[in-house]
Design brief:
It is a single chain. 10% of the residues lie in helices and 49% in strands. The chain has helices at residues 2-23, 101-110, 134-144, 448-458; strands at residues 26-34, 38-42, 47-52, 58-62, 67-72, 76-84, 89-97, 115-121, 124-131, 150-157, 165-190, 196-199, 208-212, 225-228, 235-239, 244-261, 264-268, 273-286, 295-312, 318-337, 340-349, 352-356, 362-378, 393-413, 467-473, 507-513. The strands form seven sheets. Strands 11, 12, 15, 16, 17, 23 and 24 form a seven-stranded antiparallel beta sheet that branches. Strands 18, 19, 20, 21 and 22 form a five-stranded antiparallel beta sheet that branches. The chain is elongated and about 175 Å long. The N and C termini lie far apart (153 Å).
Amino acid sequence: MRLNTRLRIMAAVAVALAPALVCGQSSTEDLKVTVGKSLVVDYPTDVARISTSNPEVVDAVAVSTREVLLHAKSHGSSTVVISARTGQRTFYNVSVEHNLEPIRRILKETYPDDQILISSARDSVTLNGRVSDKGVSDRVTALVSSLAKTVVNNLQILPGQVDKQILLRVKFAEIDRNASKSFAANLLSTGAGNTPGAITTGQSGPPSVGGVGGAIGGGALGHVTNFTLSDILNVFAFRPDLNLGATIKALQSENVLQILAEPNLVTTNGKEASFLVGGEFPIPVLQGGSNAGAVTIQFREFGIRLQFNPLLTANKTLKMYVKPEVSSIDVANSITFNGFRIPALSTRRIESNIELAPGQSFVIGGLLDDRVEASMSRIPGLSNIPILGAFFKSRSEARAKTELIVLVTPEIVDPLNPGDPKPLPVMPREFLGPVVIPGSSATRTPNPKRSAELRKNSGGTQQAKAVKAETTASATPLAGPLPSPPVADAPAAVAPVLLEPAAAAPSTLVVPAPADSKKGDPAQVNR
């Protein structure tokens, strides 16, 4: 009886302690939330205490006895512990991630044809996927860099199409015309009428008195007057019996300067290219500091220069930055410094940004400069005398006219195929002419068709095909050098003849034959 009572008491105590043992247990849950978002945790029992390991990342606030509000303040991770009145504890591992939905939407709208995947982990953002070019990859990285301290770019760049080759043709055309007229007269007397003197307007090298001697009360006989003439162009006359002389300058001059430069340059889309044909000239430069007074030499470039950077747009047009320049050494305006003669540069430079369709032309620069300079000097009174008054006047007139035009034409070009004819400049003279053997009587019958074909090929319009043809000839040993006989008329383009060593038996010469030569019909030369 007592045993049964004890068992019943123990069973009742166990049933009473079972909820307390269950409430003392703990559990763990994982939560993910984005920065700036909040979530509410509904707890099954009354909450007694709330604690967080990183309040700067997650802030926990009890809304009611069974509701806890978790607010994500910054990216990272934190552990939130909620303790119930019953003694139960729950651990929440909260991971705060970046809010990537707005940036995903922006990337999808900005680059709809590219596959860009973005993910975050703690304080870093990772980019994955494929993009069309490197420019898109750089812009996406710059856009995402504001979200995290570290951006890992794993974007793959798809192989694009072959870049277009863009040819820019530039034409510099300049004409400088200068014309001048001048007329002046100087009259001098070395003793005419017992009076030495000179009449001049002060232009065109007037005569200067070299020496005049005289005495008070003396006569004119025996006195000598000297004049120094610095410019006697272009008419000079002197009468010793009359002691009269005159210098007259009447000149007309005309100068013409023509410049035509056509530089061409090829580059790929979006790549800058430069071109220079000219040279460099030395310029002395004085050093300072510890090397004060030392002179070093620097070189400056001059010539025809072209620099441009094309960009093919979606409208099938070409946006270009162009900078053509033509410069030449100007010796007339050179200076001399410490014994060094430093020349000047005459430069025509244009820098511009334009947009054209392929094949279109545009004048990016032009200049029309027309100048007239005139001057006149005369002696009052004497210059008004009819006819003779012209000798008491001097006048000069100079005209200068400059015309400059710079024309650019962009084109999209393709490279030549291996079998296409290659354009070459037309050579004014032949490099390898016909071979003439001294002392031989070899004659060659020109092939008009072959000659025409070779002349055509020398202009770069057609590629000739050489076919070997055999020619029979007899060799004669030569004893010592012989004078070369006169060269007979030969075709304008004949290939060189290759001679075998002299032998008793007839030797064979190999001569390129026309492309249409028939087999079995070789060209033969006997000697």
